[in-house]
Amino acid sequence: MWDGLRLAVGIIHILLQDRPELTPVAIMAGKLLARRLFAGSTIQMDYDNIATTVFTPLEYSTVGLSEEDAIRQYGEENLEVYHAFYKPLEFRVTEREEDVGYIKAVCLREGEQSVIGLHYLGPNAGEVMQGFAVAIRCGLTMRMLSSTVGIHPTCAEEVVKLHITKRSGEDPTVTGC
């Protein structure tokens, strides 16, 4: 049962080579290892689609593949990238044009367009991304996303409203509510 975690001479060594260096990842890997060692579990750590957030004044959160990694893995012709610039309700008070958020969904082009990467720049990015991270792990598609009724007025609503692709060349700036 090798998943990057190893036992040696009675001392537990956790090796997370080529793994996200995030505290929640290490905690989950440790819990799963303990369950395998002492509770008969066979569940391995799944290192794919782990959400993370950069907690800067304008937060950035992501789960899954970046557009660049998706292009390397699948080829640009096999991808559809949806994106939008939006003005969060919190920013409307400042009335500064440069205060915008950005959302991008990287999808496989065929079928129902599986979402393989989601990126969000805006207020409360970590809170917004947590639920979408679960959905992506469960096989979220663009069809599912676009048929979801958003909660208005929230920043997360902008994710389910994505409809403009980079390939279309249309202006991805959200106007109105």
From TrEMBL:
Query: In what residue span(s) does the Pyridine nucleotide-disulphide oxidoreductase dimerisation domain sit?
Result: 50-161
What cofactors does this protein use?
FAD
InterPro entries membership: FAD/NAD-bd_sf (IPR036188), FAD/NAD-linked_Rdtase_dimer_sf (IPR016156), GSHR/TRXR-like (IPR046952), Pyr_nucl-diS_OxRdtase_dimer (IPR004099)
Q: Which residues cross the membrane?
A: none
Q: Which UniProt keywords apply?
A: Disulfide bond, FAD, Flavoprotein, NADP, Oxidoreductase, Redox-active center
Q: Which GO terms describe its biological process?
A: cell redox homeostasis
Q: Which SUPFAM superfamilies match?
A: FAD/NAD-linked reductases, dimerisation (C-terminal) domain (SSF55424)
Stretches of the chain forming a coiled coil according to its record:
none
Q: Which family does it belong to?
A: Belongs to the class-I pyridine nucleotide-disulfide oxidoreductase family.
What name does the UniProt record give this protein? Pyridine nucleotide-disulphide oxidoreductase dimerisation domain-containing protein
Q: What is the native source organism of this protein?
A: Nematostella vectensis
The record lists the lineage as: Eukaryota, Metazoa, Cnidaria, Anthozoa, Hexacorallia
